[in-house]
Amino acid sequence: MIDLFRVLQAAIGIGLVIFVHEAGHFLAARWCGVRVHVFSLGMGPKLFGIKRGHTTYQLAVIPVGGFVSMAGELPDGSGRAPESWELPAKSVGQRFLVYSGGVLMNMGLALVLFPILFWSGVPFSKPAIGTPDPGGPAWRAGLTNGTEIVAVNGHSVLDGLHVATEIALGDRDRVELLVRDPGSTSTRKVVVEPEHDERMGFNSIGLGRPALDPEHRIDVAEDTPAWRAGLRPGDRLQNVDGLPAAMQLEDQLRVAMQDRSPLELTVLRKSDGSPLTVSIQPDLKEGPGRPRLGILPALCVVAALRPGPATDELGLRVDDALIAIGDRRILQRGDLPLAWLAAEPDEPLVIARDGGRLAIDRPQLDDATLFAMVDDIALALDYETLRLSVAAGEGAEQAGLRGGDRLLAIDGRAEPTWVEVFEIVRTAAEEERNVELRVERTSFATEPAPQILTIVAAPIPQADPVDDGRYNEFGFGANVWEYTYRADGPLDAVRVGLATSWQYVKQTWLTLRGMMVAEISTKNIGGPVAIGQISYAFAESGWAKLMYFLCLLSVNLAIINVLPIPVFDGGHLLFLLIEKVKGSPVSERVVGYSQLVGVVFVVGLFVYVTYNDIARAFGL
Asked: Which family does the UniProt entry place this protein in (predicted)?
């Protein structure tokens, strides 16, 4: 639910950044003796305002940006000499100060607030690795869950976003990390070769999900199954019933939740540290969400292997498809170790290789070695064989499909691609009709005797998860690993504040440069909607985090405004530099046409970034 107080905080914060920028122009103009007609927060027609002296202070209809209207700023074409209190009457240096006043004030805001924030303490997510993307650069480099990232390319980092930004803007061929392994006090250097993430539009090393709280504290939404079972925010997860202790707790949660059956777990209470075991029944309701059939490709194809004694002994190869151990199919992440532990020692691992099936002997491993080996096997979705992973509680399972069935046809289309499958299901959901699936159901033997079945299933609208997907059907989730950065005294706060300001100046410039040379996709640009959403998210984290973001926004606004684009401050500064060099002002005609081009550019940019915001919000 949206907190109106947080909305107000975010709005006031954004307004503060704009106010500081326009105040910079206003103060510089007054200091240079230029009369100011209007000081406006927002654009467009005036909502309300007051007049003091020669200046009207107003709030405008469109809550984006703001402006200062100065005497003589726009040429009137009369050819008369400017009055002494008009802008054109001032020297090039004075006009340069007036047009750069907003930029200087925005930078000044960051330079003043950053040290104050770092001295008092700012909460951040820990710059640590959660679960690296299997097969990705970080995974190949051997980085594991809980590894702290101290610096990227020689630059100290404060949080996970800072890490991702340094990687995205760094060398395209090499990223040098300074890391601290779990349980260690020393650091070491790791060199990773980044990859360009086509979906995100920038370089990445596949750090995966954020690191979770090492004390396994959880967050719980009110009036949910977890809340009603007695869980509360800050309780510490100890174990999930029925899963091996050697499995990481976040993996235990993911595996236990994926079949959406009742969940039994033990926590230590935040209040007194006493253990509490609860059983949670998931809230599986039909509702206004997106209709789903509940079929996905099986996650079982070996995409990459890290060397290790157990992995080498098992003898898997890249492109092998894992089928089953004993009577347990391997279809999702977590199925391999659980099937391994449940099987008899002499039961082989059945795989698909080179068009046939093969049974391979399994080495005898203790639990810790087994889970280490599983981490060394990167699995990918099986798009080739059309083996199905069937989600619990959704239309396909209710109609009788089982995990491991191989899809032969859907609505009469034989051997469809997964793109075609998703399109057929989407169309059927829109038309509110059933889907006919023809599947092959095999035994677990190496040479299966298939059954051919025809099953009719209906896409079922699933209610949106609690709190816009933040918690899932159980109503709770593990907390991200957080800490508070606090400088060692006021001098250190000033040092860190100056370094951070300069760092974000460089990052803003490198981002713009990366977009110009197509190294970073322009779809990453955010507009007013994105700024509002991010501001609200930071407001939820407390005033210190909100003010930190506003400092970043202020630096960003300063750099954007100094770009040599007509109608931006930088465009005016460029004309002043030309005037200084040639000894006379740029002609009114050139200024007029350039301003028109600038307006068209800015309007087009506004439309584009707003489209980006909407596309991100709706997953387009």
From this structure: Belongs to the peptidase M50B family.
